[in-house]
Amino acid sequence: MKNSYIKFRCSESEKERIGDMANRSGVTLSEYCRQQCLTGRILASPKLSPTEVSYLRELKEHNNAIVRLANLIRNKDPQLVVAIAEYLEQSRQLYNRFF
Question: Where are any strands of DSSP class E within 1-99?
Answer without folding.
Answer: none
